[in-house]
Design brief:
- By secondary structure, the chain is mainly alpha-helical.
- It has one domain.
- It is about 80% helix and about 0% strand.
- The protein has 9 helices and no strands.
- Helix 3 (about 35-65) runs parallel beside helix 5 and helix 4 (about 70-90) runs antiparallel to helix 9.
- The chain is globular and about 50 Å long.
Length: about 200
């Protein structure tokens, strides 16, 4: 992979992670209810789930990519359709004050990590990123073990850079995330990013 390829992967991952979804909502709720530390532990579980998906893609889809190009074409358009549906959902409803309401908890490190891991493994948005977007950025047929290591490291760093500000904001500014105007702006912005991402994937050859 080239430097441009690594940068493109990091940028796409950062955009996908920054768009509010089940993971962000759960992290914000945890930060509001249990504070920064507990939500940080949960974010480590989310990151672990991403690494599992990345590994599965590199091991499994690399083989498929060599012989079944049509599979990726189908997955690509399924990803476009899903992102478009998410955009519509966020534009019309999105995150509300009710689903970021804090739930007090005293989960320890292991419980918090497992909660984040379970959430990521069952999150359609994460699945779409690794199944539909990653193959359009990374040539799975030529990735070496060293390049996989770099991608894994970039995944950890990128997700921490994106998620930690969410946690800090939620822990310090609960009032902001419960303001209807702020939530509307957040939802509309997320919808716009999703439309842009869907268009970019559709246009990519």
């Amino acid at each position: 992979m080239t430097l441009a390829g690594f940068i493109a992967y990091s940028g796409a991952l950062a955009l996908a992670a920054a768009i509010p979804g089940p993971g962000i909502t759960a992290l914000v709720a945890r930060a509001l209810g249990s504070g920064f530390r507990s939500s940080l532990f949960m974010s480590l579980g989310l990151i672990l789930g991403d690494l599992i998906y990345l590994t599965a893609v590199m091991l499994g889809l690399a083989i498929v990519a060599q012989t079944f190009g049509m599979v990726f074409l189908v997955v690509k358009w399924a990803g476009v359709a899903y992102l478009a549906w998410l955009a519509w959902t966020f534009w019309t409803s999105g995150i509300t004050a009710e689903n970021v309401e804090a739930r007090k908890g005293k989960d320890g490190f292991v419980a918090s990590v497992l909660a984040g891991l379970t959430l990521t493994l069952g999150n359609p948005k994460t699945m779409i990123f690794y199944l539909a977007i990653t193959p359009t950025i990374v040539d799975l047929r030529t990735v070496t073990l060293a390049e996989y290591g770099i991608l894994a490291l970039l995944t950890i760093v990128t997700l921490l850079v994106v998620l930690v500000p969410y946690l800090a904001l939620a822990a310090k500014a609960r009032w902001f995330l419960k303001t209807p105007r702020a939530l509307k702006l957040l939802n509309r912005t997320a919808a716009g990013f999703m439309v842009g991402a869907a268009a970019a994937i559709a246009a990519r050859q």
